[in-house]
Design a protein that fits this description.
The complex is a heterodimer. By secondary structure, chain A is an alpha/beta fold. Chain A has a single domain (3-238), classed as NAD(P)-binding Rossmann-like Domain (Rossmann fold, 3-Layer(aba) Sandwich). In chain A, 47% of the residues lie in helices and 16% in strands. Chain A is built from 9 helices and 9 strands. In chain A, strands 3-2-1-4-5-6-9 form a 7-stranded parallel beta sheet, with helices on both faces. In chain A, α6 links the parallel β5 (129-133) and β6. In chain B, 34% of the residues lie in helices and 22% in strands. The longest helix of chain B has 26 residues, at 6-31. The chains are: A alpha/beta, B alpha+beta. At the A-B interface, α2 of A face β5 and α4 of B.
């Protein structure tokens, strides 16, 4: 029975991932701020899937506390899924650096802080899987959300470097890039139906990537081709588009 | 000679055909004049605008057109969801004319109101004692989800209707029953307790011994007392996930009643009747009865090796509404006759998994679409035992004479007296008839109501979509007490449905 640690477990994608792994027989630790609000979810997972499900207090922005947090997780996880992120408000972040900072720190600095610790431990053990939920927004900066996008781009680059480093140590690093997902984070945004995923679909893609040991995966699959097009639009044209 | 396989031929035709089509379109476009080309361009732009506007948020994001299982009526409602108590309390405080809705499997308008509060996302298991078989969950959990958890651990639902795709909240509000009604009673008989959010936003716990007035009014109370939050229930132990089933061919109504009486000790019983048979053959069909199978009764080694986990079954789907002429007098007669004739003359004994026995229709998703886009309704009535035979004769004869309103399927069952203030169950026989909706049907059913009333029977609210106030108040004995209780509890009819208005509970 594998042990799975989910970082930022309160989000809709994270919960879907937790249910998916539990449904496949894995024990899960749900780590998030105000972990007490996840007690009911943990109980529900335990009853539905007859696995162990616990909660742990974790704050992505409390960099200093990350070592102690990971130290306290017992038994040590076989799989770590990093889901936490913060979409923020692009317009606000353009004028208020505090907002920009929170976007960068949550999506990137916090991820580096905790994954460094996890990576070192996995490297020593020569085992384990790290799954990072990045975003298609990191594939190319767009006027409407480039602060979030650039932080996710940094995360994507970090994960790819980590994968390169840990490949020698039998540690798998998976980058997941969801497109639009219907969640609390995107509530109220007008999302185009055919390319918008449900959290459960993202969770299925995450698990499939884990089982097949895929390095990079888009969710839904068509985003791979959509982003291929978007990445290859020449800059002189791209800068005039409103995206 | 070279043999070309059918697949290759098919593909060749397909490719050549589409090529010809494309060339044709190109020719047409190149030869057309400016006007036509402009027209085409305009059409294209309109299409793109449509796609763009679909991306814009709707002015009222909560507006949604919904209907329940009968696909009639379809209404535009304000649709709310909740995952936690705070959200729900805000909704209850701010809304008027609302009703809680589970999976929408009632047939008519019981779960429809100007404001609908869906419990589907309020669906967590809260506790499961696997030694005592006691389970506690939130009201949006589906019975199918409960079965997925409990069956592999040796437990089963004490009462289950003919679909497992309903929520716990809905099961309580309709106080559902199933093939075991004559022995195990209704869903609420096995509840240990539940919690309800009433009209002022407070949460009240109730049970057979605590706040009993609220409990009795809520069980079978069609959601009019508030929003059911969670429930604790007692399960029954099983050795296997299989049912030992006997199916008996029935030749007429007298025979049917005899076999029902004879089967009273069986846990489960239900009969299908050919509702179009006439005269001597009226009431012909077959009766199914069943018991939970013990391990040593199982048929194959494979079943015995893993008695609590049956093989997964294939899911089918009805992808679109059938045209309304699909079900006509001829196809319905042919179907019913075939069903009767194909059954062997003697008793057929078999071991079947619980899905096959309890939920045969759940494997066909959207089966309600066979009735076409106008939808259907189920006319389920019950008559006291002593007059069942006579009353059913009259009703079936009336249907046969109409020639226009022909039920597709008819299901017969023996009941016992039910608790609560709006009990459908009395000691007697109930018959459920599925009718496709067409002009004049409701007037025809009004006529049938008179016969049901004459014999002291009543209709099942969960299936109803058209009963009038007079019929309701005359056939249900505790209506006044129920209405008074609802008025006391829900603070001026905050909770109401189109049905409760129609039958005069909230209006």
């Amino acid at each position: 029975m594998k042990d799975v640690l989910i970082l930022g477990a309160a989000s809709d994608i994270a919960k879907a991932v937790a249910y998916k792994f539990a449904g496949e027989g894995c024990n899960v630790v749900l780590a998030a701020r105000n972990a007490a609000r996840l007690t009911e979810t943990a109980t529900d997972i335990k009853i539905r899937h007859q696995v162990e499900a616990t909660t742990a207090e974790f704050d992505a922005l409390d960099f200093a506390g990350h070592a102690a947090f990971y130290e306290a997780i017992k038994p040590k996880p076989d799989v770590v899924v990093l889901v936490f992120g913060y979409l923020g408000d692009q317009k606000k972040a353009q004028i208020d650096f505090a907002e920009a900072e929170q976007i960068i720190d949550t999506n990137y600095t916090g991820a580096v802080s905790i994954l460094n610790i996890v990576a070192n431990e996995f490297e020593r053990r020569r085992a384990g899987t790290i799954i990072g939920i990045s975003s298609v927004a990191g594939d190319r900066g767009r006027g409407s959300n480039y602060i979030y996008g650039s932080a996710k781009a940094a995360l994507t680059a970090y994960l790819s470097g980590l994968r390169n480093r840990l490949a020698k140590s039998n540690v798998q690093v998976i980058t997941v890039k969801p497109g639009f997902v219907r969640t609390k984070m995107t509530q109220g945004l007008p999302l185009p139906g055919p390319v918008t995923a449900k959290p459960a679909q993202v969770a299925d893609d995450v698990f499939k990537a884990y089982r097949k040991r895929t390095d990079q995966v888009y969710s839904l699959w068509m985003w791979r081709y959509l982003m291929l097009i978007i990445r290859n639009i020449p800059e002189p044209i791209f800068k005039k588009m409103s995206l | 000679m070279i043999k070309i396989s059918n697949t290759v031929k098919f593909l060749a035709v397909l490719i050549l055909g589409s090529l010809a089509g494309i060339i044709g379109i190109l020719l047409l476009v190149s030869r057309s004049d400016k006007e036509t080309r402009r027209g085409i361009k305009q059409k294209g732009q309109e299409f793109m605008n449509k796609i763009r506007s679909a991306r814009e948020p709707a002015a009222e994001p909560n507006l949604k057109k919904i209907s329940n299982w009968g696909n009639y009526p379809q209404v535009q409602v304000k649709f709310h969801e909740f995952e936690d108590i705070e959200t729900l309390r805000r909704l209850v405080d701010q809304s008027e004319q609302m009703i809680a809705r589970g999976n929408g499997r009632c047939y008519g308008d019981s779960a429809l109101a100007p404001q609908v509060i869906s419990s589907l996302r309020y669906n967590k298991f809260l506790a499961f004692d696997r030694d005592k078989g006691i389970i506690r969950c939130q009201s949006g959990v589906l019975l199918s989800e409960i079965l997925d958890v409990i069956v592999p651990q040796g437990w089963f639902l004490p009462v289950t209707p003919g679909t497992k795709l309903i929520t716990v909240g809905g099961a309580i509000a309709s106080d559902v029953h199933g093939k075991s009604q004559h022995k195990a009673g209704n869903f609420s008989d096995h509840l240990i307790d539940m919690e309800i959010m009433v009209g002022d936003g407070s949460i009240v716990r109730c049970s057979h011994t605590e706040n009993t007035e609220l409990f009795l009014t809520t069980c079978g109370g069609m959601g009019l007392t508030g929003v059911i939050l969670n429930a604790t229930m007692q399960l029954i132990p099983i050795e296997t996930a299989y049912i030992r089933q006997e199916s008996i061919k029935i030749h007429n109504f007298d025979h049917m009643m005899d076999i029902f009486e004879e089967s009273e000790d069986w846990s489960y019983s239900l009969a299908w009747i050919d509702c179009l048979a006439q005269g001597q053959q009226l009431g012909r069909g077959y009766l199914m009865r069943g018991e939970h199978a013990k391990v040593d009764e199982l048929a194959t080694v494979k079943q015995r090796q893993n008695p609590l986990v049956p093989k997964k079954r294939l899911k089918l789907n009805v992808p679109f509404n059938f045209p309304s002429f699909t079900l006509n007098n001829y196809t319905i007669t042919a179907f019913n006759t075939a069903l009767y004739l194909k059954h062997p003359n003697d008793v057929v004994k078999s071991i079947v998994d619980y899905d096959t026995f309890f939920y045969p229709l759940d494997t066909v998703q959207n089966w309600n679409r066979i009735y076409g886009k106008r939808g259907f309704t189920q006319y389920q009535f019950i008559l006291p035992k002593s007059v069942s035979r006579e009353g059913m004769h009259r009703i079936l004869n009336r249907i046969a004479r109409s020639r226009r309103y022909v039920p597709f399927v008819a299901v017969l069952k023996l009941y016992r007296q039910q608790n609560g203030y709006l009990p459908f169950g009395i000691e007697g026989f109930s018959l459920a008839l599925d009718f496709a909706i067409k002009p004049g049907l409701f007037e025809f059913l009004d006529e049938l109501d008179q016969i049901v009333l004459e014999y002291g029977g009543r209709l099942y609210l969960t299936k109803d979509v058209r009963m009038n106030k007079t019929m309701f108040t005359q056939s249900y004995p505790n209506v006044e007490r129920f209405i008074n209780n609802v008025r006391d509890l829900d603070h001026g009819h905050k909770f109401k449905s189109f049905q409760s208005d129609r039958v005069g509970i909230t209006q």
